[in-house]
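User: I'll paste a sequence; please echo it back and then give the predicted structure.

Assistant: Echoing your sequence first, then the prediction.
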Amino acid sequence: MLFLFETLLLFSQDQKPAPNQQTTPTPQVNQPKQGLKRVYEIGINFSSLNSFGLNFKIGNQKTLYRLTLLALNINNSQTVLRVFDTTSSKVADYGAGIRFGFEKRIFLAKNFDLHLGSDAGFSYYYHKTGDEDSRSTEWVINPALYLVVGLAYQAGEHFMITAELAPSLQYLYGKKKFTEAGSNQVITSHNLGFALSNNSVSITIAYRILKTILFKW
C-alpha cells in the first residue's frame, strides 16, 4: 500500500511544468505589400497646323481623367493692298479653349489600345480685320460636348501616339461688327448643332509615366 502511494506521488510531480520553462512566441508573418498602378501622361495635341494644345491625363491602366488646354487659329498678319500709297489691311485672329473628361482603354493587341470616352469643353474665338476704309471685328463663344474615339500605339516604355476622332454637339454664340463709311452694323448669331469636320481629328504625342503606389491591407 505504501509502495502504491509513493508511485502515485512521483507520477503527479512529473506532470507539473518546470517553473523556469518559457513558451516560445509564435513568429509574426509580415503581410505582403500591395500596389496600385498609377498612370501619368503629358502630351502635345495637334488638330491642324495652327490649332494645338497641351494634354494631361491621370488614372490607372484602364480609366484616365483628361484635361486639354487649347490654342486655336493663332494668326496676326498685314497685307499691302495698294503699293503706291502703302495702304494695308491688318488681320488678327486667335482662340483658346479647355476640355475636361475621361477615357476608358480597351486592349486590342500588343502595344495597341482602343480609347472610348467623352469631354466637356468651352472655347473662345476672336477675329479682327480692317484697313483705312473699313473694319470688322467678331467674337464667338463655344460650349460643347464631345464623344471621343481613339486608337493608341505605345512606342517603347514611355511614349504614346494617339489618333482621336471627336464629333461634338456644340452651341455657338457670337457678335460681328462692321464699320464702313462712318456707319456701323452689328450682327448677332447663335447656333446649336452637331459638328464633324477635319478639326474633329487630332494627333497626340505623349510622355507616359507608370508609378506603383504601395500600401498594406
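Residues 33-215 form a domain with the Porin fold (CATH 2.40.160). The chain has one domain: 33-215.
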